[in-house]
TrEMBL record:
It is a multi-pass membrane protein. This is Ceramide synthase 2. Pathway: Lipid metabolism; sphingolipid metabolism; Sphingolipid metabolism. GO terms for cellular component: endoplasmic reticulum membrane. SMART domains: TLC (SM00724). It comes from the Eukaryota. Keywords: Lipid biosynthesis, Lipid metabolism, Membrane, Transmembrane, Transmembrane helix. It is found in: Endoplasmic reticulum membrane. Its main location: endoplasmic reticulum. Pfam families: TRAM_LAG1_CLN8 (PF03798). It catalyses: sphinganine + octadecanoyl-CoA = N-(octadecanoyl)-sphinganine + CoA + H(+). GO terms for biological process: ceramide biosynthetic process; regulation of lipid metabolic process. GO terms for molecular function: sphingosine N-acyltransferase activity.
Length: 389
C-alpha cells in the first residue's frame, strides 16, 4: 500500500507537463537537473542554522545590544500565590471574583504578566539574526539572478521548460533559503510570540511547500525571482525593529516608512502583476495546465493573501503615524505586520480598567468583567495581609 501511495505521489502527470517523465530530468551530458532527493540536505542545514543562530545571538547580537544600550531589565517577580496563579493559568488572566483589593490584585497580575513577556534583549537578538540573514540572502540572491536573461525578460523563465539544467549558485541559494525557513519553523515555539503567530506558521509552511515543489518540478527560475523579491523588504523591517528596541525612534520610523514603500511595491505590485502573471499566463503558451501548475499557483495565492493582510496593517499604522493620530513611538512587533497600535489601545483600556478597579478596593469581593466562564469567589483575606506586596 505504501508503495502504491509513493508511486501515485510521484506520478509524472501530477508534477510535470504532458508527455514528459522524470527520466527527462536525469543528469546527462554534463547537465545537472534538480531532484527531490536534493532537498534532504535542508533538514540538517536547518539544525546547523539553529546552532549558528545561538552563537550569533551570544557573541554578536548581545555585544551589539550592549553597544546600543539595549539592556535586560530586571523585573519583579510575583510572589507565590496558588489561588491567583490558578486563575492566571486557567481563566484567561481575568478571574471574575477575588477577595483581594483591586490594587493588590492589579500589582500581582502586572508582575505575573511581566514574567511571561519576552525581554527587550531577546527581541533585539532575534531581530538582529533575521536582519543579518535577510540582508545577506538578498545580496546573494541578486548576485545569482541579476545576470540572467529571465531577470529582464520574464518570458525566458519558461524557455526550454522543464528541460532546464541547474547551476551551483541556484542550488545553494535554494538550499540555504529553504533551510532557513525550516529553522524558523523549528524555533517558532521558543521565539517571541507575535500577534500574527498563526499567519506566520501559515507563511512558513506555504513557503517551504512552494520552494520544495518549485525545486523538484524545475520551477527554479521563477523560484529565485520570488525569493529575491521577498528578501528585498524583510531586512528593512528587522533593522527598524533593532533601532526601535535601541530607542532610536526617529531612525526606526524613517526605516519603517521606507520598508512600507518597498513592501507595497514588491508584494502588491511586482509580485501579482509581473511574477504571478508570469507563472499563471506564460506557461499555458507551452503546455496544457496540469496539477503541478494549479498547485504552485495556489501556494502563490496563499502568500499573496497574506501579503494583502500584512499590507493592510502596515498602511493602517503608517496612516495613523503620518496623520498624528498615533500617540507614542512606532514599534514593530512581527515579521511583516507592525501591531503596536492595537497593543497601545489595549494598554489604555487596561489602565482605565485597573483605575476603576482600584477605586473599589474596599469592596468585599471584586468583580472582574469580560470573562465567559463562572468562577467562585476566592477566600477573603484581611486587607494587605496575605496579598503580594
Amino acid at each position: 500500500m505504501l508503495q502504491t501511495l509513493y508511486d501515485y505521489f510521484w506520478w509524472e502527470r501530477l508534477w510535470l507537463p504532458v508527455n514528459l517523465t522524470w527520466a527527462d530530468l536525469e543528469d546527462r551530458d554534463g547537465r545537472v537537473y534538480a531532484k527531490a532527493s536534493d532537498l534532504y540536505i535542508t533538514l540538517p542545514l536547518a539544525l546547523l542554522f539553529l546552532i549558528i543562530r545561538y552563537f550569533f545571538e551570544l557573541y554578536v547580537a548581545t555585544p551589539l545590544a550592549a553597544l546600543l544600550n539595549v539592556k535586560e531589565k530586571t523585573r519583579l517577580r510575583a510572589p507565590p500565590n496558588p489561588t491567583l496563579e490558578h486563575f492566571y493559568l486557567t481563566s484567561g488572566k481575568q478571574p471574575k471574583k477575588s477577595g483581594l483589593s483591586g490594587r493588590q490584585v492589579e500589582r500581582w497580575f502586572r508582575r505575573r504578566r511581566n514574567q511571561d513577556r519576552p525581554s527587550l534583549l531577546k527581541k533585539f537578538r532575534e531581530a538582529s539574526w533575521r536582519f543579518t540573514f535577510y540582508l545577506i540572502a538578498f545580496i546573494a540572491g541578486m548576485a545569482v539572478i541579476v545576470d540572467k536573461p529571465w531577470f529582464y525578460d520574464l518570458r525566458k523563465v519558461w524557455e526550454g521548460y522543464p528541460i532546464q539544467s541547474t547551476i551551483p549558485s541556484q542550488y545553494w541559494y535554494y538550499m540555504i533559503e529553504l533551510s532557513f525557513y525550516w529553522s524558523l519553523l523549528f524555533s517558532i515555539a521558543s521565539d517571541v510570540k507575535r500577534k500574527d503567530f498563526k499567519e506566520q506558521i501559515i507563511h512558513h509552511v506555504a513557503t517551504i511547500i512552494l520552494l520544495s515543489f518549485s525545486w523538484f518540478a524545475n520551477y527554479i527560475r521563477a523560484g529565485t525571482l520570488i525569493m529575491a523579491l521577498h528578501d528585498s523588504s524583510d531586512y528593512l523591517l528587522e533593522s527598524a525593529k533593532m533601532f526601535n528596541y535601541a530607542g532610536w525612534k526617529n531612525t526606526c520610523n524613517n526605516i519603517f516608512i521606507v520598508f512600507a514603500i518597498v513592501f507595497i511595491i514588491t508584494r502588491l505590485v511586482i509580485l501579482p502583476f509581473w511574477i504571478l502573471h508570469c507563472t499563471v499566463v506564460y506557461p499555458l503558451d507551452l503546455y496544457p495546465a496540469f496539477f503541478g501548475y494549479y498547485f504552485f499557483n495556489s501556494m502563490m495565492g496563499v502568500l499573496q493573501l497574506l501579503h494583502i493582510f500584512w499590507a493592510y496593517l502596515i498602511l493602517r499604522m503608517a496612516y495613523k503615524f503620518i496623520t498624528g493620530k498615533f500617540v507614542g513611538p512606532m514599534t514593530l512587533s512581527s515579521r511583516n505586520c507592525p501591531s503596536s497600535l492595537s497593543r497601545y489601545q489595549q494598554s489604555s483600556e487596561k489602565l482605565q480598567f485597573w483605575r476603576t478597579l482600584s477605586s473599589k478596593e474596599d469592596a468585599p469581593c471584586t468583580q472582574w468583567p469580560h470573562s465567559s466562564r463562572a468562577a467562585p469567589c476566592l477566600p477573603h483575606c484581611p486587607p494587605r495581609s496575605c496579598s503580594p506586596k
